[in-house]
Amino acid sequence: MIKTAGDEALMEMAYSLAEKARGQTSPNPCVGALIVKQGQIVGWGYHQAAGSPHAEIIALERAGQRARGSTLYLTLEPCVHWGKTPPCADRLAGAGFERAVISTYDPNPLVYRKGVAKLRAAGIKVVTGVLAEKQVRLNEAYSTYIVKKIPFVTLKAAMSLDGKIASRTGDARWISSEESRRFGQELRAEQDGILVGVNTILKDDPQLTIRLENFVKKRWSRIILDSRLRIPLTARLLKNPEQGKILIFTGYNSSRQKAQRLTERGAEVIRVPGRKNRLSLKAVLKALGQREIISILVEGGARVMTSFLEEKLVDKAYFFISPKLIGGERAPTIFEGQGVSRVSRAIRLKNISTLRLKDDIIIEGYF
After folding, report:
1. Active-site residue flag, 56
2. Cα-atom radius of gyration of the chain, to the nearest Å?
3. Assigned CATH class of 151-366
4. Among residues 8, 19, 56, 178, which one is catalytic?
5. pTM here?
6. Domain with residues 7-140, CATH architecture
7. Would you kindly state where each structural domain of the chain is located, as residue ranges?
């Protein structure tokens, strides 16, 4: 079936609803829905959190009997399986819709094309593919997780013009502007967790929290890579376990006694394989996926970011570039290690966009 002239505008509205829950629906996708009858919106809704009603059900309940003969606009194919809520496609199939405009199919193998098929079997005229490109960006973490069962990895780094992420003494406060740091908090709020190496804990003693009022109750994990369990028992993040789960990844040979003491302070210690004090990042990502953590923000330090880049495990990056020169041969950079032998083999960002915040330039791109 062919889309009508107003379908894109109404789907834009449905996406605006879906955006309201960005960062709050994990491990579910963000979804928005509209129900339109004779040019009037009679129902609307968006999925607000895992376990809560789905967008189309909220919209349907608002519309009531007015849903009969109407058009449903839905940003993602309706589910057909039991999870924490009943299958939405069954309810929609019996609601009397004349048309349904579905932006994209759900990549979940349990759902893919089955929800649309159920609507068509009920006699509903279904259009797909309207503003599908918006779905790719909105639910990029969900799409990665539901297929690969590992989190979507975003790398974030603030650096000077000469590529330094700290001075030769390790000082990094502050390379970026206050406005950029606020934006960094918003990026944190969109993820399920933040990941750093133990050296970041030893140098900066961060709490790794989200300092935004709207995300006080957010499901949030603080992830530390610490092959030898060098994290101090006095670390600030261990004093506030209520502000987010603490997951410490370590090697098989690290201290059992230290692990027990960390557990008593509210941390979960997870042992994964590794070599020469370097943990297997693939094993780390697999363990996070098993815990339904679908997106992480890698914030440092240099060794951790280099490892993720070298192993090609980064999906997306935000580089905050400040108009400062730090210098110093020993000052860390975002990408160290051996490096490439030829410029032609350099890692390239794709689908790049830029944003200016005061004097800083932020580059967003994909690998």
Report:
1. yes
2. 23
3. alpha beta
4. 56
5. 0.92
6. 3-Layer(aba) Sandwich (3.40)
7. 7-140, 151-366
